[in-house]
Structures are given as C-alpha cells and as structure tokens.
C-alpha cells in the first residue's frame, strides 16, 4: 500500500483526475454513500433554495471530494514550489507578524476545499513549525506514510491522544498549531451550542483551552477554490490575548460565524458527509 501511494505521486495531476471522477461516480451514483443524510442536511441549511439548486450542491460536493482525494495523494509528493503555486496565501504577513514577535498562534480551519493541501501549503509558505492534530489511520503503513508526507515542510503531525503533551513540551517556543475544528463533539463532552445553517449545532470548546494556556492569538484560515487544483487562503483574527472569562464561548461563536459565511458563499466546498448534526440539542441546554 505504501508503495502504491508513493507511486501515484509521480504522475502528473491531470492524468490522475479521471480517477477522482470514478470515485465520485461510485460514491454518488452507485453506492449513494450517506447521500440521504447529506440531502436532508442541505435542505435544512438552505430552505430557500430550489430542489434543483440543492441537488447541484450535493452533486458538486461529491465531485469535489473525488478531486480532493486525488489531489491529496498527489500532493504528498509535490514540491514546496508546486504547492505554493497551487495554494496562494493572500496575507501570510499576519502569521509572520506574530512569529516575529515570538508568539505562538492557533490556526482554526474546517473541512473546506482541500484541507490536506492547506496544511502542506502552509508549511511551504511559513517559516515556523506547524503542528496539526490528526486521527490515526487504521493501516499502520498508510498511517506512517501520511505522517511523513505531511511533515515534509517542517510540520509535525500529532495524534489526538498526544496533543496536550506536545503543547506542554513546546510551550516556550513560537509555533503554529492547526486544528480542523468543525467536527462534532461527543455527547458527553462540554460544547458550545449555536444556530448554524438554520440548525442548533454543537461546536468544540477545546481550542479555547489551548489559546488560554498558550496565550496565543486565534486565526481563522479560510480556503477558497479558484478552479480545479488551485486555491487561495485568507487569514483573519478571531481572538487575541489577554483572555477574559467567557473567551471559550466567544472563540467558538466567532469560528462558527466565519465557517457559516464560507459555506453560504460556496456550499459545495464543505464536506457535508461528516455528520455534523449527529444528535439534537438537549431541551435544558442554554446556548
């Protein structure tokens, strides 16, 4: 498996895209993978859109996912210059400003566009270590290959269970920590409830604990698709230290609003497959 993944990186990206179409066709047309749930979520999020408009959002999301998987595999072997050409940072000076001041920054992003290229592209653009949290792959060979590929430009891929230890280990050194923060907390975890895409939605509060511990500014990383295989990235500050009580909810709310706006502008670029609304808001919970 490791050899196959490495072998694919030697092909020009245009020659690999047809396999992305095969993945799309299999998931959307044949298996109809999670399609009913996705269609229901899109309908609740965009009740004012026509049925045809919502269908196009769903279909394009599956097309984007197929392309994104192929791009990720190719990107694991791409050079820094190739990635910087395909992932353009609009305002990298924002991160450089904090890095030059010796400050650690917390980068929050989402499953929008190509999050694999986002991490690799950021590593190629910025001159500081970027640590990203990830979930281990089931196959050990695949897990090792992905970790090595993601770390090629000075990044550090940290398994979820080791993240707190790593933060404490490097707390005195300016770094960037990246979190893909749009997944849903487990039922028993502390969370922030807010209205998001016309639905009560739960968001993690973990980023706030990290920001408080490190006294780090929190930056939202917005990725936008220009065309197939080309993206731009815009950075914006969600919060800066010193932090007061209630900052945890403030950061989550700011993140939710930034992500919601990005989805409204380009609905098919978000990964609707991830089951964002796994459970309803408990009646006694106050947002």
Give start-end ranges of low-pLDDT stretches.
Answer: none
Number of helices: 11
How much is the average pLDDT? 88
C-alpha Rg, in Å? 19 Å
Q: Spatial order of the strands in the main sheet?
A: 1-9-8-2-5-3-4
Strand content: 15-25%
What is the count of β-strands?
Answer: 9
Separation, N- and C-terminal Cα atoms: 46 Å
- Helical fraction: 40-55%
So what's the oligomer here?
single chain
What is the N-to-C succession of helices and strands? HHHHHEHEHEHEHEEEHEEH
Largest sheet: 7 strands, mixed
Structural class per helix/strand content? alpha/beta
Morphology: globular
How does this model look, in words?
Helix content is 46%, strand content 19%. By secondary structure, it is an alpha/beta fold. Helix 3 (35-45) packs across helix 4, helix 5 crosses helix 7 and helix 10 (206-214) crosses helix 11. The mean pLDDT is 88.
Which SSEs are present, and which pair or pack?
Blueprint: H1 2-8, H2 13-30, H3 35-45, H4 51-75, H5 80-86, E1 87-89, H6 93-100, E2 105-109, H7 115-125, E3 130-134, H8 140-150, E4 156-159, H9 163-169, E5 176-180, E6 191-196, E7 199-204, H10 206-214, E8 218-227, E9 230-239, H11 247-265
Parallel strand pairs: 1-9, 2-5, 2-8, 3-4, 3-5
Antiparallel strand pairs: 6-7, 8-9
Q: Main traits of this protein?
A:
287 residues; alpha/beta; globular
